[in-house]
Amino acid sequence: MAAQPPHDPNFGLPPEEVPHDWEFNIGDDTFKRVVTVGRSNLDFLARMEGETATGGDDQKWMEGDSKCGKTSLELRDGGEIDEEEARKERAKRLKAAGIKISDEDILSDDDESKKEDSDDSDDDSSVYSASEAPNGPGGAANEEEEDENNMLDNDWDTSEWTMQEIESACQTLVRECELKSSKKRQELSIRMLIRLLDRHQEAVAYIEKVSESLLNKAFPGILVDGIAPEALNLSHCLAALAPRFADSFSLLGPIARVCKILTNEMDLAAQLLQWRYKVRRLKRELYAIKDDIAPDRWIRKKMTLNMKSDDLNKKWRQMHDATHSSSVPPDVTLSHLKFLLALCTPSNTKHASENRDEVVKKHGLLPICLCLKEVGEDYMDPVTLDSASVVSNRTGSTATVSLGALGINNMGLIYPHQVACKLVLQISQERCLLYPLLRARIHEGLSKILAHQPILPAEDICMALDAMDMIGSNALKSSNVAMSEEDYVAYEQEKRSRLFHDENYVDSDADDCPSDVEDEGEKAIYRRETRKAIINLLVLPSIVSKLTLLLEVPHAQIFLGSVMVLHKFASTQAYNHVLIEIISLAGRPLEKIVENLPSGDDKICLACLNLLKQLSTRQAGRDGMVTSKIADMLMPLISGQDATPSKVFTLALNVFVALAQDGVTENVGLDLNGPPPKQVLYDDLLRIFTTPGSSPTVSIEHLLDLKVMNFVINFLVRPENTALYFNLTNQHKQMGAIILHRIFLHKECCRTMPVGPAMQYLAYNIQHMFTFFMEGHFGHTTKEKLIFFGSIQGSCRGLAQIAKYSPDGDMLVMRKIGDMNIYKEIEELLSFPSVRMDDSYVPKIECSDAAARLVGSIARVPVSERNPEADKESTLSLKDDVDNCLKTLNRLIEQMAKPLMAIVHGCPSKSAVANATSALANLCSTNATCDALLDMGLAKIAASLFPDKPSILEGAKGMKNIEDEIYDVQARDKRDNEVAVLLDLDASAFTLVASLCRTPAGKHAVQTTGMLRRCVERFHLDSGVKGVDLVVRGEISGVFAKIANTHTIESGNAGSTNDYILNPNYNTVRILIELVREGGNTLFYRRSRYWATAALAELCHDTMRAVPLIVKFGGVVEFSRVIKGFKEGRTPEPLLRPALTGMFRIAKYPLGGYVGKLFEEGMQQPLVAIASNVRLRMDYADVLDRTPLGDFAKDILFCMSEAKLHSGNGGFGGMGEDDSVGEVKRMEETKWDKDRVDMWKEMGVNEDVVVAVQGQEEEEEEDYGEELEEEGVDEGEEGGEEKKAGDAIPLDGTYASMGVSTMGSLAAELPNESAECAQTRVSKLDAEDPRFRNELRRRKEYYEMGSSYRLHRGGEARKSVTEKGTKSSD
């Protein structure tokens, strides 16, 4: 208490005794005024309550000396304990525990008062004085003590004392404490001295002046002849003064001497034991040299050994003799402990940390540990013994053990044990002292106290739990449980590096080593030893089991303390022990924790929640609790109509979310004053669902398995309260949008969860946050800005996910956008900033990316275009399907097309460009919308994505050889950059090109702008990432399927699209067949496989060029696998259609050239099964604009049967590919003479067939001559030139016949022809015309034989393919 200034008019009076105005009427003299008021109060009390001797307040004041310092015990929660009721309850517990209680243990307060009231009693048998009785929490004096102080002030007025009188009084009182004529006088002297210190600053100055001499007298440094009685008595006075003078005492260094006194007995015992072992060796050595030294010398040596032994034995006996001064009475030991406690308490001194270190260094933990271990030494489990007796551990005999033998009095732990617990609590606050605390086995003494919970009051158990919690907290910081030994070494090295290079780095482990350990190497060793001590000494199953048993105690504070300590232990290497104990006994402890989760005490709720979350940080803990049916325990807390808004619902959902985590997560801290559970749940959901990798997906699947995902969504959107969104804070609104987006990234959630409230929430968030977006209110901190922009992006992408994967999601989202009228908001979000200096440039670009994705997902695409890889074909006709989409597409094109094209043209974000391109591709999904977008300039925008240089593939015609340009660095760099640009293109760019090829205008634009060339080149480039190449090639296959067989002679860069696609230098057909052949059932593979099959089917229309190549590279085999897989359920219906189409084109090859391959693959039965499938016809009977699949199968079967019929018994059905093709070639190249006819007959060919083919060939030759005459070509001259030059004359329709020398310049060197010449000679002929087949055969031969082809059919100039070689696509 601070002293009042000397100028205060009330100087010398207690603060509570300030006179009132009416008191000054009694008189000006303070002493007379106080006496008059006091006596009037006594008279009033006597009149109101009877005579004072019968129990009035004056009697109570007169008994103040005997009850000095006693206070009622108080629980941690603040509730006072009735001593009498506590005794009765304690007697019942002790009786139930099997401990016999003697009459001395249950003395009433009256008996104790009578014993202590005797003025003549100088008996010191009472170990502890009244002033040393245990106080309540914080040591606050109760009302009784205040009354005693008031009475002392009234009886002893020192207000007019001079400084000399005050100092003399202090000296007299200290001398009285030192002499200790009687215990009562000593206690009264201490109280009077304290009151003097409270009232007079002079008394404080005097004690500070003589403090050094008092400490030297009370704590002698030399203990050879024991301690003087005066010094022992003075220790009580210093223990009472220590809290007031802790600063000055700390500077004088008394802790070392106090610890030496406390450890004197142990030190002497160690010396005695060491000497007894040492003296035996010395005596043996002495007897061994007896003959080598003089007898007198030998006798002196022996006498020296005996004298030292006698001296040690004498000291030991004297120390344990109560009448000798060497023995330290127990009350003095208690005063020493109280003195140390006062100097280690931070509220008393600023040197508390240094004092704690000093106590540990001077071995002060040893007496503390021994004091704690004395609790219950003779106590054994009463379950195994008779209720009336306990077996003594020391003697082995059966005897009645009193509470005193257990270190327990009639109200709990005796005072020395309580002081020891408090001292441990103070020392354990220093993290650097954890290692010596563990080595001293302090936790074992605390666990002994916890084991005696049935016979101890709650406040003692709570005190031990406090100390254990502090030790566990330091162990948590020093254990590094998440690190292996190698990781810990790497962590230490990284920390040292940062400490050396970074001046601002603060080491979080700077306080984990004592101050005298300065070297980094020594610190590493100390930390490593601390970790070992934690594992080997602290985190033991025995201690964890005792803590778990406390969960059954029906006391709030004990339950809270045990949960807190278990949480600390679960954060260290004791995790497995805690988990085993929690889920043991069929999950009974786990059930107790869950039962207390909805407790009315917020601290208990948070402690239980954090313990369960800590156990959920590892997969073993989550699996164990789920196996123990924790889901069934928690489900009643989250189910019910009114459960969502409740606090219990939030707590239980927190546990479910923790159970759904994946992998090993960080330890969960325990902060009883932390954020509310609602905020914690938002933070946990955001952390779990935004973790990189696959963990969010696994967590969502766990929530679905636990059947609580619906409750999570209800917590976020509250469907029962539509106005909830506006009651949330902005932070919770934004976090909810991000979490919902992450949840709906899982397709199963889109399909099974109710999406209506979620769409409403996300649409509200776009509308609400857009206002802040336009005003520039993004938040103040970086985290707030990140969450703000993330909420806008999450809202757009969440709606996109719902539109894409929910049933009828695009219609639902489009309708919700229309109802909320947020078209303008989405349009503005598409407008990305053009100024890079904007602080929010990057997040705004990401918002544009998200908005583009939303537009692409809600743009309705015809079913056949949307899911070509689906299992079933659309049951709608193409006209109805397009009509259903036009309204939505036109609405989006009107407002969103231009911002999307602006993103494609100028946005620097590749992701935004990809999403905008995909959105534009969806908007082009019908002919009408495609033409509308082409009119808006979409073709140029799409062409700007591709490099505009000619052929960039090595080895292509028109490309320089790499050796020729090795020194042309500029050309090489340009080529490399163009290749890199082409490889970086997203698949959506090729999807857009495929959509543009829907109409003739789009096909013309794709050809004229060079996009087709780029598609062919990218189709053959390899990026090194198989998945990327698979997707890109699949989309390019869609381009081929839609643009194949297109001719634009008047264009500047291309004639026939097949000239690019079927160019032998590219091997496009082979790669397409590989796409069909590759295995896998992923979405991207199925889509790529479909478009590759469709491209091959369309290319088969070019009968003479494409069909032989497709057959050669195994196209028939792959088509047959697809068709056969339909019967087995492996082939979807959309994929079956192009396969049947391609197979039909191959079967219609002239003269049935490849029908034999169909027979070899055994296609009869699969085709019959498809043709006779009634379901295929009935399911799509209403679809009139699509040929049934069964009709394709029938046509193929007809072609096969017709070819077999025409070929006779030995027809082409039995020939291989080479045989059939070879025979056709020979029939074309030779004239029909007798030798040739005989050869065919010998081969088994039907004579009728030979005659028919001969006549047909002669007709074709005549027709060909007529055609040459019509074109103005003289056949004779042509033949003459051939004979003279001997060079090959290419066929009509090839590059050479058009005057083209290189592939890249096709049509660039063509003469200007009229529009009538836009069609080639082949396209003008009818398919049944023999000239058509003749022309196709010639083109086929040209492309397969190259320059070795000879038009002349006879003579030495004609050579076989085998002699001249072939130039194939290989």
Describe this protein with a few key phrases.
two-stranded antiparallel sheet, 1370 residues, disordered N terminus, mainly alpha
Description:
Helix content is 62%, strand content 1%. The relative contact order is 0.03. It is elongated, with a radius of gyration of 50 Å. Helix 23 runs parallel beside helix 25 (575-582), helix 41 (841-858) runs parallel beside helix 44 and helix 43 runs antiparallel to helix 44. With 1370 residues, it is an all-alpha fold. It has a two-stranded antiparallel sheet. Strands 3-4 form a two-stranded antiparallel sheet. The chain contains 68 helices and four strands.
Question: Can you count the beta strands?
Answer: 4
The portion of residues forming beta strands comes to under 5%
C-alpha end-to-end distance:
102 Å
Largest sheet: 2 strands, antiparallel
**Rg value:** 50 Å
Low-confidence stretches: 1-18, 49-81, 103-141, 378-406, 954-966, 1209-1233, 1267-1324, 1346-1370
Helix content: 55-70%
Shape: elongated
The average pLDDT value, as a whole number, equals: 75
How do the strands of the widest beta sheet line up side by side?
1-2
Structural class: mainly alpha
Figure out the total of helices.
68
